[in-house]
Design brief:
- By secondary structure, the protein is of the alpha+beta class.
- The chain is built from 2 helices and 3 strands; from the N terminus they run E-H-H-E-E.
- The protein has a 3-stranded antiparallel β-sheet.
- Strand 2 and strand 3 form a beta hairpin.
Length: about 80
């Protein structure tokens, strides 16, 4: 397995995996999650835009065939410390 930055070719698979997570949530808390009524978390165009944002990198885990099997959405923040 390899971890790399997500690419446009990964978008549809990420959306598919996000749907699987939504299904798990809907199974556990059907009062809060209405699968498949809830819209996908991100559209293809939204993910395409996110891939361009350096401060919000997306990483994917890919198998030997370079198929996405997991993802991590990150957000880089600089924290100010007060004395």
């Amino acid at each position: 397995m390899t971890i790399r930055k997500a690419e446009e070719k990964d978008i549809l698979r990420i959306i598919e995996l996000l749907g699987q997570v939504l299904q798990i949530h809907a199974d556990i808390r059907p009062d809060n999650f209405y699968f498949p009524v809830n819209p996908p978390k991100y559209t293809v165009s939204e993910l395409t835009e996110l891939l361009e944002k350096e401060e919000k990198p997306i990483y994917v885990a890919v198998n030997e065939e370079d198929v996405c099997v997991g993802y991590a959405f990150c957000q880089l923040q600089e924290l100010a410390f007060f004395n």
